[in-house]
Amino acid sequence: EWLGRTPESFCSSETARAMAAVACHQARRLAAADNRSETLFGLSCTASLASDRPKRGAHRAHLVLHSLSCTRGVSLVFDKGARDRRGEEELLSELILNLLAQGCGARNDISVSLRPADELTDERVDADPLLIELIESRRPVVWSMTNGSFQEALPDALWPESSATQSSNAPRRGVLCGSFHPLHAGH
To answer: What's the CA gap between 64 and 123, in Å, rounded?
Structure first.
């Protein structure tokens, strides 16, 4: 319900990213309604932890901090059987508090008690400044180039002028591509 769709997997990094993005969008919407402009972010966690029944798969968790300027994802595959439910929740709480501290601009000094067989991955992606300006409505258009970069305007070389059919002050048009993920009836 939070995502507006059923995810392929409830416990995945993709689902955690989507949840954090929705939370960030909701925070921005609520702040705009109150005319507030502080730094906002969404924080999400999805996990499959030890329970009273044996699990076939790995015990794992995915956490994401999403803001306009960056997305940081932390995934953990627990050393299965090394901790009980409470032990896994305590480790997960340490990770959540560290991400929360980062989002608030505080130091994250909470030690994380990993075991040698725990597998932790931490990935951060910073947003291009042009995209931030676009999202904040400080820029009307940003062009996504084939090499993955973003530009304020397209180079003239991409707009070949034909003799009589196009003047230099004719409107230029481009195509904004979207994704088909998730695939839905509109596609």
So the answer is: 9
